[in-house]
Write a structure and sequence with these properties.
Layout (H helix, E strand, L loop, with lengths): L19 H13 L3 E2 L11 H4 L6 E5 L2 E5 L3 E2 L4 E8 L2 H6 L1 E9 L5 E3 L3 E3 L4 E3 L4 E6 L2 E6 L8 H13 L4 E2 L3 H5 L12 H11 L13 E3 L8 E3 L5 E14 L4 E10 L4 E7 L4 E3 L3 E2 L25 E7 L6 E4 L16 E3 L1 H4 L3 H9 L8
Parallel strand pairs: 1-6, 4-12
Antiparallel strand pairs: 2-3, 3-5, 4-5, 5-6, 6-7, 8-9, 10-11, 13-14, 15-16, 16-17, 17-18, 17-19, 20-21, 20-22
């Protein structure tokens, strides 16, 4: 049977306080002592070229047994990102294995680890983790479980801190193809190096959160007020593990980010609250095992509509013939389009009727932390 994964509830971690030059020198010494870079993209045959190309890490974050090294932030036409180097555990450290990855910031303001990428004349997107079959409008469809690429909530504030401290963000349209495995146009599913650690972890039923079943549900279709949690898995608003400040022009300026434990201590939530929006990111287990992609191997499953960001896709895609209407907001709940991206509309008509969001607003408050 697969190993029982240990759990721990810990404070959010901070970046290593040493200067960037010291972190870079430490990383180079690690390579000089025999550690190997293991990119899966086009740099796999010349991995040490990554440093020659300027992808030398300048920051370090440690969580449990995992070490994350990070470059300065980069930007391409689609994403703000770090080139990251992950040493997931003591076994990888002993074997001298270092895994280059792409950590990017999703428009929900959660940092993720891309599983692969697709780029062609017809497609351009970042792989978003494990693929699952869903019934949509009566048809089976293969979709991405995007939350499987969310980086641990315990390091999200550290990533934000490093990103916000950057004086200059370099444009970079090469790193993604150097680091990530490239899929064909119809490749939704990630590759085995992403999925196998998750399969091993799930092989032991003791590792599963609520037996692998959802910990929340809507008792009535298209009714946000009907949200219910399985007893014990609801957020405990007296157990705020972290309250941190952030900013977002998309969401009108200052934001508060609150990491909150469930009543039974088995999962944790991240609430984000700004001047006009409050939403909750997908919850995470408190398990300690981290894969080579820097993410947890065990999920806490909830309905997608619980975790809509403040703005979500709702537009007519005229690139299709005939045009197709695309929406990730429940019918009848789309607000005004975002001034930053007209393809996304305000999801607060749905979000602010969720009982858990309303309780957060009553108990914690709408006001973001003072900067």
């Amino acid at each position: 049977m697969a190993t029982k994964i240990a759990t721990a509830v810990v404070p959010s971690v901070a970046p290593d306080p040493r200067k960037p030059a010291s972190i870079a020198a430490e990383f180079r010494r690690t390579l000089d002592q025999g550690a190997r870079l293991l990119p899966v993209g086009s740099a796999k045959h010349r991995p040490n070229s990554l440093l020659r190309l300027g992808y030398t890490p300048r920051y370090r974050i440690d969580l449990f047994e995992t070490t994350y090294y990070l470059t300065n932030p980069r930007q391409n036409p689609d994403i703000r990102f770090f080139v990251a180097y992950v040493i997931p555990d003591a076994r990888a450290r002993a074997r001298g294995e270092i895994h280059p990855r792409i950590f990017y910031k999703d428009l929900s303001l959660v940092w993720r680890s891309a599983s692969h990428f697709v780029r062609s004349e017809h497609e351009n997107w970042i792989g978003k983790g494990e693929a699952r079959i869903e019934i949509i409008d009566g048809e089976e469809m293969l979709t991405s479980a995007e939350e499987t690429t969310d980086l641990p909530l315990e390091i999200q504030t550290a990533l934000e801190e490093i990103n916000r401290a950057a004086r200059r963000v370099r444009y970079d349209d090469e790193a993604v193809s150097l680091i990530l495995r490239r899929g064909g146009d119809d490749r939704i599913a990630p590759y085995a190096d992403f999925t196998r650690p998750r399969e091993r972890a799930r092989a032991n039923p003791q590792n599963l959160i609520h037996g692998g079943r959802p910990i929340a549900r809507f008792t009535r279709r298209n009714d946000p007020t009907s949200l219910r949690f399985v007893a014990g898995f609801e957020p405990d608003f007296s157990a705020v593990l972290e309250a941190a400040a952030s900013r977002s022009s998309l969401y009108g300026g200052p934001l508060g980010r609150y990491r909150i434990l469930s009543a039974n201590g088995k999962v944790q939530y991240l609430f984000v609250s700004g001047p006009n929006h409050t939403w909750v990111a997908p919850p995470q287990a408190t398990t300690k095992e981290i894969s080579s992609y820097g993410v947890r191997t065990i999920d806490a499953i909830v309905p997608d509509d619980l975790c809509l960001p403040g703005f979500e896709y709702h537009f007519l895609d005229d690139s299709e013939d005939p045009p197709v209407f695309v929406s990730q907001i429940p019918p009848g709940f789309a607000g005004a389009p975002s001034s930053h991206d007209p393809r996304r509309c305000d999801a607060t008509p749905w979000l602010h009727q969720l009982p858990v969001v309303r309780e957060f607003q009553e108990r914690i408050g709408r006001k973001a932390i003072a900067q």
